[in-house]
TrEMBL record:
InterPro entries per record: GATase_2_dom, GFAT, GFAT_N, GlmS/AgaS_SIS, GlmS/FrlB_SIS, Ntn_hydrolases_N, SIS_dom, SIS_dom_sf
Domain SIS, chain residue ranges per copy: 284-423, 453-591
Subunit structure, as described in the record: Homodimer.
Top-level lineage group: Bacteria
Chief subcellular location: cytoplasm
Enzyme Commission no: 2.6.1.16
Protein name as it appears in the record: Glutamine--fructose-6-phosphate aminotransferase [isomerizing]
UniProt keyword list: Aminotransferase, Cytoplasm, Glutamine amidotransferase, Repeat, Transferase
Subcellular location, record wording: Cytoplasm
Gene name of the record: glmS
Length: 601
């Protein structure tokens, strides 16, 4: 979603801001802009579309200056166009602002304070910058006007404000939306994500909700709304700048699919002690083991990983588990058990829907664990415990390596809790995960086979179905999400047995049906479902597992532990989706309308 960068230092801000915005492109956006301050005022450049468009506009504009802010916008209030793009300016153009989030009471604020102002955009953001000017005109200093405005805002925001009468400060605040301060020698930066400013620093400070931060060239002052100064140490962002590059791959998605064996190895290493046993912080084990029911909360791909995780937690650890879509749970909480534990699964750790649930469960005093790829992310900071995915930055909007990492970490957690509950282990998990790693490697090596499958089944189709039973059904949901989000093919995942209760009506001559057959107890029944769709003209693509395969199957994955098959079968679906999108000449890494990190509810 929207991304923010800002720079105050000795160098020309424009190029640093543009480079920073390029690093945030992965979050998803539809317009972008920068503002740079110098002695002649604040110069703003904006463009609809990609950063490359903004670059063209910015290069033509006179924007020398050592203080600036930049923004990528994912439209919420108003269509993506020049007027609605950030940065936004106050009526006199003295104040310039970038904003990530949604202000819920902007109409009320507009009516109460700004009835005489002519607004240029349809955004909620413009209200904020006009309000700063309104209070400044009433005689408040910029800092006091900004603080006053923050005290009035309801909703989510990360804000960077500049004042062309003060070339020495960026005013910053946040609530619910992510924003970090990057610290350097004689310069400081702001960024929605450390990746954006790794080009100049790997030292960052967190900001808490409702704090006011004054970022200067040589100082960062953090205050409460009441003006009390807060001391905050910086930390080193654990991201290698090279991890955030595409390297030899054409797309981040392909790179991230290929990284999965390495991620599996890293997880095995991180969660293993020197004696080769599974390890985890004892306080996490205690809280999970003491829960009488586990509630998994997540969105999208992370939700799909949660569905697989439920199988491990119930079958291995013996703890009843429910998996919920975060955006539903927050408005419709089920009856909770007496001693629940909440597991939040989120690659980014910033998903607003999941955070909304965590805020509620924290209020209720329930224990929580976040499983995330981003140390220090909001969900990680606000939950009682964190388990890291160790997957390295995931840049492509379509999540791949995070899904398999989430499942691997959930399998480890479940086995550890099983041991705590003295349940007999029927699986040597580390050995099985090593087998999974080799199996993923074999599939990645077969990428050209997946490309051929994409050609044979998906080249011209407008829709496709994914079917499976039990755990394969969970994977078919993820397969269909992968295909639809990047290829725009209408794709749905179904439980094989549900087809004849309605969906089979959609099957026509040539409809591709991708069926997963990796589970022994349902092998015959899923194949029966395939026969049913074939009888109605479907073009079946059967992905089975060695040992359960039959003549004519389209692809056979190596044999792994039955509950761990999602880690392997999903890789075939990721690659098939990748090639289907590639063959349609689509922007695989940045699909339309989508954002990597969904930071608004
Ligand atoms: O960062 P999160 O894991 O919380 O994100 C949740 C979903 O937005 C995300 O998984 C989304 O569905 C993926 N981009 C799909 O590939």
């Amino acid at each position: 979603m929207c991304g923010i960068v800002g720079y105050i230092g000795q160098d020309n801000a424009k190029e640093l801001l543009l480079k920073g915005l390029e690093k945030l492109e992965y979050r998803g956006y539809d317009s972008a802009g920068i503002a740079v301050v110098n002695e002649s005022g604040t110069s703003v450049s904006k463009a609809k579309g990609r950063i490359s468009e903004l670059r063209k506009v910015a290069e033509a504009d006179d924007q020398d200056g050592t203080l600036g802010i930049g923004h990528t916008r994912w439209a919420t209030h108003g269509v993506p166009n020049y007027e609605n793009s950030h940065p936004h300016q106050s009526a006199s153009k003295r104040f310039t602002l970038v904003h990530n989030g949604v202000i819920e009471n902007y109409e009320e604020l507009k009516n109460e304070y700004l009835s005489d102002i002519t607004f240029i955009s349809e955004t909620d953001t413009e209200v904020i910058v006009q309000l700063v000017e309104h209070f400044s005109n009433e005689g408040l200093s910029t800092e006091d006007a900004f603080t006053k405005v923050i005290s009035l805002l309801e909703g989510s925001y990360a804000l960077g404000l500049i004042d062309n009468e003060d070339e020495d400060k960026i005013f910053v605040a946040k609530n619910k939306s992510p924003l970090l301060i990057g610290v350097g020698d004689d310069f400081n930066v702001i960024a929605s994500d450390a990746i954006a400013m790794l080009q100049v620093t790997n030292q960052y400070k967190e900001i808490h909700d409702h704090e006011i931060v004054i970022v200067k060239r040589d100082d960062v002052v953090i205050k409460t709304l009441e003006g009390e100064v807060q001391e905050r140490e910086s930390y080193t962002a654990q991201i290698d700048a090279a991890d955030a590059e595409k390297g030899v791959y054409d797309h981040y998605m392909l790179k991230e699919i290929h990284e999965q064996p390495a991620v599996m190895r890293r997880i095995i290493q991180e969660y293993q002690d020197e004696n080769g046993n599974l390890k985890m912080d004892s306080s996490i084990i205690k809280d999970v083991a003491e829960a009488d029911r586990i509630y998994v909360i997540a969105a999208g791909t992370s939700y799909h990983a949660g569905l697989v995780g439920k199988e491990f937690i119930e079958k291995w650890a013996g703890v009843p588990t429910e998996v919920h879509v975060a955006s539903e749970f927050v408005y419709n909480m089920p009856l909770l058990s007496e001693k629940p534990l909440f597991i939040f699964i989120s690659q980014s750790g910033e998903t607003a829907d999941s955070r909304a649930v965590l805020v509620e469960t924290n209020k209720l005093g329930h224990k929580s664990l976040t499983i995330t790829n981003v140390a220090g992310s909001t969900l990680s900071r606000e939950a009682d415990h964190t388990l890291l995915l160790h997957a390295g930055p995931e840049i492509a909007v379509a999540s791949t390596k995070a899904y398999t990492a989430q499942i691997a970490v959930l399998s480890i957690l479940s086995q550890i809790v099983a041991k705590e509950h003295k349940r007999e282990a029927d699986v040597d998990l580390l050995r099985e995960l090593a087998k999974v790693t080799t199996a993923i490697e074999a599939i990645v090596d077969d990428a050209e086979v997946m490309e051929q499958i994409a050609t044979d089944f998906l080249e011209t189709t407008r829709n496709a179905f994914f079917i499976g039973r039990t755990i394969d059904y969970n994977v078919s949901l993820e397969g269909s999400l992968k295909l639809k989000e990047i290829s725009y093919i209408q794709a749905e995942g179904f439980a094989g047995g549900e087809l004849k209760h309605g969906t089979i009506a959609l099957i026509e001559d040539g409809t591709p049906v991708i069926a997963l057959a990796t589970q022994e107890n349902v092998n015959l029944s899923i194949r029966g479902n395939v026969k049913e769709v074939v009888a109605r003209g479907a073009n079946p693509c059967i992905i089975s597992m060695n040992g359960l395969n039959k003549d004519g199957d389209t692809y056979v994955i190596p044999q792994v532990h039955e509950l761990l098959t999602p880690l392997v079968s999903v890789v075939t679906l990721q690659l098939i989706s990748y090639y289907a999108a590639l063959h349609r000449d689509l922007d695989v890494d940045k699909p339309r309308n989508l954002a990597k990190s969904v930071t608004v509810e």
